[in-house]
Hints:
Layout: H1 3-24, H2 39-50, H3 52-67, H4 87-105, H5 112-142, H6 148-154, H7 156-179
Amino acid sequence: MHKTRIRSIVQIALFAALMIVGAYLKIPNPFFPVYFTFQTIFSILAGLLIGSRKGALSMTLYMVMGLAGLPVFSTPAGIHYVLSPTFGYILGFIAAAWVAGKISESFPDFTIGAAFLASSAGILSIYFLGTVHMYLLNVFYTGTPVGYLGILSSMALYFIKDLILIIPTAILSVQIRKRVAFACGS
């Protein structure tokens, strides 16, 4: 194998591993039975630091491991997890890594502003896919009469937490890219 291919495999595996760690770093939520985790941050960092393609591949690897039954999600998994209300967020992690990576790749000078913009777009993609999946699951699978606005409002606390966390994420990603040779697909 070529050195660059080995480097790519290591980068993809590293961010899949960081997602697993992020799933287990749980902060209890006093309002809902779902914990705060750091997965959104690691999915965004994957795109910002190793690029859109490899970032999305690392999140796909994470998803496949969970669907195969490995204990990598924040709750027990397996193929049945696609019917979980939070599975759309797992799909959102893939989209977030790709979106954040694509946007960051379009900036020749990667600044904190560019990182913040890319991170914000990544967060929006996570919540879009997550809430749409939750809505469709409620309407077509469980038959629960929940409106889309109700689902959006139930995610407000998580969204605010993630918006706050993308500030240090943007700063961290710029600093890492300045110092680490492997960052952003190198």
